[in-house]
Amino acid sequence: MAELTNIKSPRVKAARRLTKRAFRDRDRAFLAEGPQAVREALALKDVTVELFTTVEAETRHADIVAAAVAAGVPVHRASGEVMSELTQTVTPQGLLAVCRFVHVPAAEAVPRGARLVAILAHVRDPGNAGTVLRTADAAGADSVVFTDASVDPYNAKCVRASAGSLFHLPVVTGIPVADAVRHAKEAGLRVLAADGAGTRTLDEVALDVPTAWLFGNEAWGLPPELLALADEVVRVPIYGRAESLNLATAAAVCLYASARAQRQTLHSVEDPTTPTL
Amino acid sequence: MAELTNIKSPRVKAARRLTKRAFRDRDRAFLAEGPQAVREALALKDVTVELFTTVEAETRHADIVAAAVAAGVPVHRASGEVMSELTQTVTPQGLLAVCRFVHVPAAEAVPRGARLVAILAHVRDPGNAGTVLRTADAAGADSVVFTDASVDPYNAKCVRASAGSLFHLPVVTGIPVADAVRHAKEAGLRVLAADGAGTRTLDEVALDVPTAWLFGNEAWGLPPELLALADEVVRVPIYGRAESLNLATAAAVCLYASARAQRQTLHSVEDPTTPTL
């Protein structure tokens, strides 16, 4: 296999342009870097378009390269310089896949029977968004919605922070928050906005029901018009002296509180007459 | 007030060297950047040694500068170049305090009556460590222990990620993990190691008792010899397909699960005879 060494070759340029959102949207493709992401991409049918690998990675991750070959995915050996050009990371991991978009149509934002959904309303930092996606996956969420005011789920930092979760569960992108909330309500989910403005805390609301969590911006949370869309605004209780939690942490606490409540038999302290299921 | 414009002036150089751990340890001082951290530092007695401020920040945060002056803290006006030299951030916030160390002696690692303690065993990323500190504060933890194999709590990135929490609760630094665990056990706390190796999950252990959580390295968790120190190894349940959670997220789920259990009346699914209070 000849090694790609010219960063100006058409193949490298075609992949390189996927570091920009406009070109991702035009080509309906994105870049997934590192063994974990590439392995997850290859586990899905017809997602991986081509694979770039350095000589070192080809040896270290021979199983992944073999899986690509077996799936009929073209594998290109690339020089370190070419890989640096494509990955934009300080220490490239030597494996990079060009992948087709994996998100599902807006109509599938809330899958049938869904009990836990995360809606990202104004999450702007790709690392935070990817972390929320990973956490939602871990918490067993049925889908994650990146609304039109949130970061692109195919941003390289988001893909990296999601640690493969982008390939695990239905992801929707680019729909208005109001549409996401409507889908959730129509599917019978209770929509809870996580925000410091909440009058009740996580400890005071019923979490064992199908729930869609709405998460806002890292710095300023959710604006009033979005808070108004939710069935209730709930805040994570601050038991100590911190002013707030960071977004990914707050989302983790909310998503896991719901996931655990849905799986445990809890008695409500406010309403001792609630029957135990 | 004359503006400091020379990055080689003795005052600037004396502060600048605090970006290095060896000098922080020698001077027993560190740098706290931004209005939130500076405000919290000034709220403590005898912590702030001096304050650097740009002209813009002096106007925008006049209340903070006034508080410094009222507390007898020397305020130095600094040029943008000097501030950049001191803060190492892409967008300096224009306020930077030189602070005395705030950690407490090892013997106070677990305060009398403590019910929730976080022990960082091998946390190496300062951003993660600071986020865990902030989360522990929010969850009402009684102290946070940075053991000798963990990052320096006075690292600028850690201070920034802690969002002021470094100044909120007792922090211990530089003690061996075994000592931290011994202090916790002697104080009657149950020591739970958070690790994927746990046989029981967070849903299966009693969390309403005084607990010290032991958190390991971002990539490889806790080594066997540290797992062996704990009363029990507990894993955060993964309900979906993610391989794991990131460290700060896992810590948030564990700390909040304990904090909420200690405050709520929960029925144990294993023991339906537990009376409701």
Structure report:
2 copies of one chain form a homodimer. Chain A is an alpha/beta fold and 277 residues long. Chain A has 2 domains: 3-100, Ribosomal protein L30/S12 (60s Ribosomal Protein L30, Chain: A, 2-Layer Sandwich), CATH 3.30.1330; 106-263, Alpha/beta knot. Chain A has 11 helices and 12 strands. Chain A has helices at 10-16, 21-27, 35-42, 55-60, 62-70, 80-87, 126-138, 156-162, 177-186, 224-227, 247-263; strands at 3-4, 29-33, 48-53, 75-78, 95-100, 116-120, 143-147, 171-175, 190-194, 200-201, 211-215, 232-235. In chain A, the strands form 2 sheets. Chain A has a 7-stranded parallel beta sheet, sandwiched between helices. In chain A, helix 7 runs parallel beside helix 8. Chain A starts with a strand and ends in a 14-residue tail after the last helix. Residues 265-277 of chain A have low confidence and may be disordered. Chains A and B meet through helix 7 and helix 11 of A and helix 7 and helix 11 of B. Chains A, B: Belongs to the class IV-like SAM-binding methyltransferase superfamily. RNA methyltransferase TrmH family. Chains A, B: Keywords: Methyltransferase, Transferase. Chains A, B: It comes from Microbispora bryophytorum.
